[in-house]
Specification:
Layout: H1 15-23, H2 27-31, H3 48-54, E1 58-63, H4 71-80, E2 83-86, H5 92-95, H6 105-115, E3 120-128, H7 134-137, H8 141-158, E4 165-170, H9 193-204, E5 209-214, H10 223-238, E6 244-247, E7 250-251, H11 261-269, E8 274-282, H12 286-301, E9 306-311, H13 337-348, E10 383-392, E11 395-404, E12 412-417, E13 423-428, E14 430-433, E15 438-443, E16 455-463, E17 472-475
Parallel strand pairs: 1-2, 1-9, 2-3, 3-4, 4-5, 5-6, 6-8, 7-8, 8-9
Antiparallel strand pairs: 10-11, 11-16, 12-15, 12-17, 13-16, 14-15
Helix pairs in contact: 3-13, 8-9, 12-13
The structure holds ligand G3I.
Length: 476
C-alpha cells in the first residue's frame, strides 16, 4: 500500500515547468485516475502538508491529546500534516467543565505540539448543542445566552494569536427538515444566537478566521446546504463577521460524496467567504475509496477559496468511525491507496486559481449591502468610535470599533450613555467603569496603542435594551 516509490524529484521553479511535465502523462494514465500513484509531475511533493502548501493550501488532521504520547501516531502527524484541529479538547465540556472555571490543559498540549512544529491550528468549536457540560445543558434563556457568549469570549481570548480559524458555531441546522434550525437550548435563546456568537468571537480574536461548520451540507441540492448558504449570504449582507464555511464532509453510503460537491464549494466561496473541508473521512477501501478522496481534493483545488482540507483522524483506528476504515493510514500506520490518491491529486490536480464559478440555483453575487460596523474615516488627531449592536429580547452585545486619528493613540477611552434599564454585565478587550447610565471603556493593556488610521475592537454585553448608542472617543 505504501507509496515509497514516489521519486523525490526536485520541483521546477515555475508552475509552468510543472505543467510541461504534466503533459508527458499519457491519456491512459489520466483516464485511469488510480494509476497516478506514481507521481510523474516534476514538482511532486512527498508529504500531504508540503504538497498542499505548494498549492497555497493546508492539509490537516484532527488530533487527540491522549495520543501525543504514541510515537507511531506523532511520527505520521509530524511528517505529513501542517494543520491540526483538536478533536475534542476545545469543546465546551472540555474547556469549561464548571461554569466560569476554564481548563485548557489538553487543548494547550495540542496547540503547543502543533505550533512548535510550524503547524497551524483550527479551533473546534466554541458554540454547539452537543458536548455541553452539565451546567450548560441545564441552562436556558438569557442566562444561557450570557454563558455562551462568555464561553466564546474566554476561549477565543485564551487562544488569540494561536488559532488561525475557529469553528465558531457547529451544526446549528436540522437534517431533512426543510432547512430549519436545529432545536437546542442555544436555539431557544433566540434565532440570533449564531450571529451573537460570531460577534463575540470577532471581538475576542479579531485576527482569527471565523467559520460556520456543519455536516450534510455537501450536496448543493439539499435543503440544509441551501439553508446554510442563505444564512451566510444574510450575514455577509448585514456585516455579521463571518469569514469561512466548514464542510465536515463525513462520507459513507448514507451520506455519499455528491457529484455536485464542487458546485457547493464554489457557490459558498462566491459569497465572499473561504471554504474549508474540516472533518473529511470517507468510509470504504481500496480504489473506490481512493477515487473519492481524489475527487474531493480535486474539487477543493478547483476552487480558489477552498483553502485547506482536514481529515478527521490519522489512522483508521483513530477514527470515530473506525469500523468504516475511512482515513488515509491503516491501523499500522501504512499509507493506503487513498493516501496515494490524495498526494497525487495535490501534486497533479486542477490549477490553483480558477476564475470560473460553476452555476448554481442561487445567485452567487454579494450585494454591496451596508456594513453596520463601518467606521467613519479618522478626522484629525484623537480617535473615533462606532458601535455595532446585536440585540435580542432581553439583552444585547455591543461591538465597538475604535479608530485612531492622524497622531495614533497610546491609550483611549470611549464614553457613552446607556438607555434607562440597560446594564453592562460583561466586557472584553477593555477596562470598563460603570454599569448603567454614563459608562466608560478604556483600553486594555494590549490594545491602547493604535497606529494612525488603524483600528481595534472591544465589546460589552448587557441586559435590557440598548437600541442606539452614541459613543465619543478620547485619545491619550
Ligand atoms: O475519553 C473518554 C474515555 O475516558 C471514556 O472511557 C469513554 C467512554 O465512552 O469516552 C471517552 O470520551 C469519548 C471521546 O469521543 C474520546 O474518544 C466520548 O465518549 C465520545 O462522545 C467522544 O466522541 C467524539 C464525538 O465528536 C462527540 O460528539 C469523537 O471523538 C469526535 O470525533 C466527534 O467529532 C465530531 C465533531 O466534533 C463534529 N462533527 C462530527 C464529528 C464526528 O462525530
Amino acid at each position: 500500500m505504501s507509496n515509497t516509490s514516489v521519486p523525490d524529484i526536485r520541483r521546477p521553479k515555475t508552475r509552468a515547468g510543472a505543467r510541461i511535465a504534466l503533459v508527458s502523462l499519457t491519456a491512459a494514465a489520466l483516464a485511469a485516475g488510480a494509476a497516478l500513484t506514481v507521481a510523474t509531475s516534476a514538482n511532486a511533493g512527498t508529504t500531504l502538508g508540503a504538497s498542499a502548501a505548494e498549492r497555497g493550501r493546508y492539509f490537516g488532521a484532527a488530533v487527540a491529546a491522549n495520543k501525543l504520547s504514541d510515537s507511531a501516531y506523532t511520527t505520521i502527524l509530524n511528517r505529513e500534516f501542517n494543520s491540526v484541529t483538536p478533536e475534542n479538547e476545545m469543546k465546551i465540556d472540555a474547556t469549561e467543565p464548571q461554569q466560569g472555571q476554564f481548563n485548557f490543559t489538553n487543548a494547550d498540549r495540542i496547540v503547543s505540539h502543533a505550533r512548535s512544529r510550524g503547524m497551524q491550528v483550527r479551533g473546534h468549536t466554541l458554540a454547539w448543542h452537543s458536548q455541553q457540560p452539565g451546567w450548560m445543558q441545564n441552562m436556558s434563556g438569557a442566562a444561557l445566552r450570557t454563558a455562551m457568549l462568555n464561553h466564546v469570549t474566554q476561549v477565543a481570548t485564551h487562544y488569540r494569536g494561536q488559532v488561525v480559524a475557529w469553528d465558531v458555531v457547529n451544526e446549528a441546522f436540522a437534517d431533512g427538515n426543510g432547512g430549519a434550525r436545529r432545536d437546542s437550548n442555544l436555539q431557544r435563546t433566540g434565532n440570533d444566537w449564531i450571529e451573537a456568537a460570531f460577534r463575540a468571537a470577532r471581538a475576542a480574536d479579531p485576527a482569527a478566521k471565523l467559520c460556520y461548520n456543519d455536516y450534510n451540507t455537501d450536496n448543493w441540492t439539499w435543503d440544509k446546504t441551501q439553508a446554510v448558504y442563505r444564512m451566510v449570504q444574510d450575514f455577509k449582507q448585514r456585516g455579521v463577521p463571518i469569514d469561512c464555511v466548514g464542510l465536515q464532509s463525513h462520507f459513507n453510503s448514507g451520506s455519499p460524496y455528491p457529484s455536485n460537491y464542487r458546485t457547493t464549494l464554489s457557490s459558498f466561496a462566491a459569497l465572499g467567504v473561504d471554504v474549508q473541508i474540516t472533518e473529511l473521512d470517507i468510509e470504504g477501501s481500496g480504489t473506490t475509496q481512493a477515487n473519492t478522496y481524489r475527487n474531493v481534493v480535486n474539487d477543493c483545488l478547483a476552487v480558489a477559496r477552498c483553502t485547506g482540507i482536514t481529515v478527521w483522524g490519522i489512522r483508521d483506528t483513530d477514527s470515530w468511525r473506525a469500523s468504516g476504515t475511512p482515513l488515509l493510514f491503516d491501523g499500522s500506520g501504512n499509507k493506503k491507496p487513498a493516501y496515494d490518491a490524495v498526494l497525487s491529486a495535490l501534486n497533479n490536480g486542477a490549477g490553483p486559481n480558477p476564475t470560473t464559478t460553476p452555476p448554481g440555483p442561487n445567485p452567487t453575487t454579494t450585494p454591496p449591502g451596508p456594513n453596520p460596523t463601518t467606521t467613519p474615516p479618522p478626522a484629525g488627531a484623537g480617535c473615533t468610535a462606532s458601535v455595532s449592536l446585536n440585540s435580542w429580547s432581553a439583552g444585547f452585545v455591543a461591538t465597538v470599533r475604535v479608530t485612531a486619528g492622524s497622531s495614533g493613540t497610546s491609550g483611549w477611552t470611549v464614553s457613552l450613555t446607556l438607555p434607562s434599564g440597560a446594564t453592562v454585565t460583561n466586557s472584553w478587550n477593555t477596562s470598563a467603569s460603570g454599569t448603567s447610565g454614563a459608562v466608560r471603556f478604556s483600553n486594555a493593556t494590549h490594545n491602547g496603542r493604535i497606529a494612525a488610521g488603524q483600528s481595534t475592537e472591544f465589546g460589552f454585553q448587557g441586559t435590557g435594551s440598548a437600541s442606539s448608542l452614541t459613543p465619543t472617543c478620547t485619545a491619550s
